[in-house]
Amino acid sequence: MSSLKTQLLAGERCDVPTLEWYNQHIPVPAIDHWWQTESGWPMIANMIGVETLTIKPGSVGKAVCGYDIKIFDEEGNEVEANQQGYVVVKLPLPPGTLLDLWNDSPRFKAGYLEQFPGYYFSGDGGYKDEDDYIYITGRVDDVINVAGHRLSTAEMEEVVASHPSVAECAVIGINDALKGQIPLALVVIKLNDEIENFQLEHEIINIVRQQIGAVASLRNVVIVNRLPKTRSGKILRKLMRSIADGDQFQIPSTIDDEAIIDEITEVLQKHEIGTFNKNNTLTN
């Protein structure tokens, strides 16, 4: 440890409870950042080789040189500080970023350039604070609609992760016949923790109600041995959502272990969740 100066993070965003745990155990700064395969290199970071910024829990840093990053509302207007919206990048993009999709320019334009003309649409949501620190809240398609209320699964994940028995978690929106969608929390508990699923579910549901409100409608929390991830550490939420909803899916080529698909399926079957719940007519 004496030679370690900085811990650089990758894969999933670093939530506040994880950073707090890290700071209690590791005596070197944890540097988060944000980028996409399409960008080729970080778009938001704490550029320690240029100037080390104060670390703000939950933030991935500030825009890297070469990127003009803004937060837009649905109409393409820049929002005020601490207001959530769509993360976009002003064109042109710097060298090293994607130029097109192979043999499919119309799809490239539709997916990245048409929603906000003059800007690259990242597909992520987030916000800036008054100091221009940027916070990524997750993919915009991870926002779920519960009886007309739009809820961020990233916000719920942060609350679920605050439970002392939870090592990591994922919250996804699954189809529901009554409310359209409802959240489902899948959690991995800490090593040697022996909490029962029923107790954990009860406690997490209460925490979410206290911090977000009953509108969140979280009523299912299941313990899993592990979460499906890519080899770079990104949680495959869309895959779990497809399993729970009974939709067809392709196994991502980047998945670290295909066997986990059967593991997740067995847990959902055991708890009769989503398409495995005979009373949920929307998924049957």
Description:
The strands form five sheets. This protein has a four-stranded antiparallel beta sheet with strand order 6-7-8-9. It has a three-stranded antiparallel beta sheet with strand order 3-4-5, with no helix packed on it. It has a three-stranded mixed beta sheet with strand order 12-13-14. 23% of the residues lie in helices and 24% in strands. The chain is an alpha+beta fold and 284 residues long. It comes from Flavobacterium gillisiae. InterPro entries: AMP-bd_C, AMP-bd_C_sf, AMP-dep_synth/lig_dom, ANL_N_sf.
Topology:
Layout: E1 7-8, H1 16-25, E2 30-31, E3 33-34, E4 44-45, E5 62-63, E6 69-72, E7 85-90, H2 105-113, E8 119-128, E9 134-139, E10 143-146, E11 149-152, H3 153-161, E12 166-176, E13 180-189, H4 197-211, E14 220-223, H5 237-245, H6 259-271
Parallel strand pairs: 1-2, 13-14
Antiparallel strand pairs: 3-4, 4-5, 6-7, 7-8, 8-9, 10-11, 12-13
Domain AMP-binding enzyme C-terminal: 155-234
GO molecular function: propionate-CoA ligase activity
Family: Belongs to the ATP-dependent AMP-binding enzyme family.
- Secondary-structure element pattern, one letter each: EHEEEEEEHEEEEHEEHEHH
Radius of gyration (CA) equals: 20 Å
Estimate the global geometry from the Cα principal axes.
Answer: globular
Q: State the helix count.
A: 6
Kindly state the number of beta strands.
Answer: 14
CATH architect. name of the largest domain: 2-Layer Sandwich
Mean pLDDT: 90
Helix/strand/pairing class, anyone?
alpha+beta
CATH class membership of the largest domain: Alpha Beta
Task: Enumerate the strands of the largest sheet in spatial order, edge to edge or round the barrel.
Answer: 6-7-8-9
| Percent helix | 10-25%
Family: Belongs to the ATP-dependent AMP-binding enzyme family.
GO molecular function, one term: propionate-CoA ligase activity
Domain AMP-binding enzyme C-terminal: 155-234
Domain AMP-dependent synthetase/ligase: 2-90
